[in-house]
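Q: Give me the 3D complex with adenosine-5'-tetraphosphate.
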Amino acid sequence: MNRIFSGVQPTGNLHLGNYLGAIRNWVSLQRDYECLFCVVDLHAITVWQDPAQLRASTREVAAAMIASGIDASKHIVFNQSQVSGHAELAWIFNCVARLGWLDRMTQFKEKAGKDKERASVGLYAYPNLMAADILLYKGTHVPVGEDQKQHLELTRDIAQKFNNDFGVEVFPIPQPLILGAATRVMSLRDGTRKMSKSEPSDMTRINMTDGPDDIAKKVRKATSDPDLLPGPDALDAGAVPEAARQARPEAYNLLGIYAALADKPMAAVLEEFAGAQFSHFKAVLTDLAVAALGPIGQEMTRLAADPGTVDAVLREGAERARAVAAPILDEVYDVVGFLRP
Ligand code: AQP
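A: Here is the predicted complex, encoded as structure tokens.
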């Protein structure tokens, strides 16, 4: 059976991008794959996290998965720090990956900013931990957003190098799964920046727990432009040309969100709103977003009031994850030459 590993960091403010770009896709993958869905708290602490907030965010991400329709009785939902094999395998991969490989990672450069001397070592080695997350379970497929493609390439390089160095076929070479229309949801205030949990302004994103009033306000105030909405003649071979997107980033971002929420191709959405005013389109978009996120947000709020249920899911998930990981880690330790009791 093909096996998927994927994760979300508990870094607060789960948003529509996390939902459309990740969690919603996971729900449909459950049918065809054996899945491990992880709240990656070890990754989260590569930048400072307030401990109380980290605990709350860990529960919130788990609640979002459950509320969105992930079946934690059939698949494995857990938080990463409960399975020590992630950190153990990551150490081995720190010794397999080359500095030159990590030096090329663009996300480190973006996240570390100008002063990379002050970034944590963990932030730099983050892709090695991601490789460990996947390969600890011999994951065969990884659903990735555009931004994670480079890290998955590194995972593939690590798996290949480990197998070559030791002359074994221990690790599969995991395949990327790029899914869904909205692989990249952009900020509501700046269509050239990714919608992000860590963006200080709450008006840049629709949170998964936002109620109808907040959603309506954020969509109404979302940046637009003075023109009417484009029609299907804007497309080239069924896709929005890069130049058109760059000329009207906010318009195409909102249209893309609509297409993803309505599960319609962009051509159909452009047909529907060709020549419309933003005010009309935004009202329809608001209704759609409220209908899609409302029930999920309500269930997340209910689960937030019942942390015992969420903790039990994570505990049981971690037990099952440990059981899958244990023989794989034993095999790796044996290959490396570690003496075991
Ligand atoms: N804007 C986005 N559009 C589409 N997908 C997105 N994802 C994140 N932002 C968008 C996808 O959500 C999953 C979990 O992401 P993550 O928790 O690992 O963190 P991230 O990618 O760094 O996302 P954020 O929300 O911007 O968090 P911060 O601000 O903490 O860095 C991934 O599959 C990601 O592709």
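A quick observation: The chain is about 55% helix and 5% strand.
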